[in-house]
Design goal:
Helix content: 40-55%
Strand content: 5-15%
Oligomer: single chain
Number of strands: 5
Number of helices: 6
Radius of gyration: 17 Å
Strand order of the largest sheet: 2-1-3-4-5
Length: 172
């Protein structure tokens, strides 16, 4: 099946020790659903100096998101109870461009459960710093979980949901 739609793959998978193999698997899943994946590490970055490289990476990823018709985002916990902040940025950027986002998390526990083991003596859930932890039963912060088109349990499910959505909107 020939890919019809470009989708941007957001998430902390770029930090994995096996990132090339990991991305190959995601790209193959996309292909089976008629999608062509845009992976951040496929960008060629030519900048001198760390600050210039950082900006070039951001701009290149933004260009990929602009090129994509949708974003598939891994919002699994990363270095703590929340998602990767770079992925959160990419989701917000895509939503600002009115592109649908299909998210997945391999950790199905609510954000509250991942953040605090139990409510305090006052019955209010607070983190280690004493700050209130939202309790909407969502997998991630409400600004993410309620803005994306879907939150599924796996990359395969998010890719399938994205393909189904794009196919339906193409027909309609």
């Amino acid at each position: 099946m020939m890919p019809r739609h470009y989708v941007y793959l957001a998430g902390p998978g770029v930090f994995r020790h096996d990132a090339p193999e990991f991305s190959a698997g995601l790209k193959e899943l996309c292909q089976t659903h008629g999608l062509s994946a845009l992976w951040p590490l496929d960008n060629t970055i030519e900048a001198v100096g760390r600050a210039a490289q950082a900006e070039a990476i951001r701009r290149a990823n933004e260009a990929m998101i602009r090129r994509a018709v949708a974003v598939i985002a891994d919002i699994s916990p990363f270095r703590g109870p929340n998602m990767d902040p770079g992925t959160a940025y990419e989701i917000g950027f895509a939503l600002a461009l009115e592109k649908p986002v299909f998210a997945y998390s391999t950790d199905r526990r609510s954000l509250l459960t991942r953040t605090v083991p139990a409510a305090g003596a006052d019955g209010v859930a607070r983190d280690e710093a004493g700050l209130l932890v939202e309790d909407f039963g969502l997998l991630e912060n409400l600004m993410i979980a309620t803005a994306v088109a879907a939150v599924t349990h796996s990359a395969a499910a998010a890719i399938a949901a994205c393909a189904a959505h794009l196919n339906a909107t193409q027909r309609g």
